[in-house]
């Protein structure tokens, strides 16, 4: 992914930039400070497809190949197209704090048994070096029974990765599908009675 320096000139318009297929952004890091950049929309989409929004991105700027992580992605409220990015430059040996998506494995087996997984959290905040950062952190829920509760401490993580979130916080629980449907139906009736 190629980043180019964004120059603010008279008559400059971010809207024009986006219409030309570029996404504006800010690149920052300890060595470089804050740099205004732009990236081709298609190149960005390709890199996000392979690395994910929470993964490490490879990019080049001014002829130098670097790596970075997306700190923020702003999307258009209607089209959901990316309209701005914040990218942090990283070095391999640097310890960093990032959110990593939680991958719930075996959810379909719960559904086959008439149970459903209620997800409280979809990401976990971790601290680690760039070279050991996973794209996702897995948890196997396939053998979960109704009433089972999963916490951050149940996640399968490498010893080189530390969880920053409270490890006792609940991330998901297993419920009976029929019971949940009945509860939702009851809530809807109560809401209707309040509004009538």
Taking all Cα atoms into account, the compactness measure Rg is: 22 Å
- Major sheet, described briefly? 6 strands, mixed, barrel
Which fold name is given in CATH as the topology of the largest domain?
Answer: RNA Polymerase Alpha Subunit, Chain A, domain 2
Number of helices: 4
Basic shape: globular
Briefly, what is this?
It contains four helices and 13 strands.
Model description:
By secondary structure, the protein is α+β, with helices and mostly antiparallel strands. The protein folds into two domains: 2-90, Ribosomal Protein L25, Chain P; 97-195, Ribosomal protein L25, C-terminal domain (RNA Polymerase Alpha Subunit, Chain A, domain 2). The chain is built from four helices and 13 strands. It has helices at 14-19, 41-51, 107-112, 177-195; strands at 2-5, 22-29, 33-40, 56-61, 64-75, 82-90, 95-105, 115-119, 123-129, 137-140, 149-151, 162-163, 170-176. The strands form three sheets. Strands 1-3-2-6-5-4 form a six-stranded mixed β-barrel. Strands 10-7-9-12 form a four-stranded mixed beta sheet, with no helix packed on it. A three-stranded antiparallel beta sheet has the order 8-13-11. β5 and β6 form a beta hairpin. The chain is globular, with a radius of gyration of 22 Å. The mean pLDDT is 83.
Salient structural properties:
196 residues; alpha+beta; four-stranded mixed β-sheet; globular; RNA-binding
Give a topology summary.
Elements: E1 2-5, H1 14-19, E2 22-29, E3 33-40, H2 41-51, E4 56-61, E5 64-75, E6 82-90, E7 95-105, H3 107-112, E8 115-119, E9 123-129, E10 137-140, E11 149-151, E12 162-163, E13 170-176, H4 177-195
Parallel strand pairs: 1-4, 2-6, 7-10
Antiparallel strand pairs: 1-3, 2-3, 4-5, 5-6, 7-9, 8-13, 9-12, 11-13
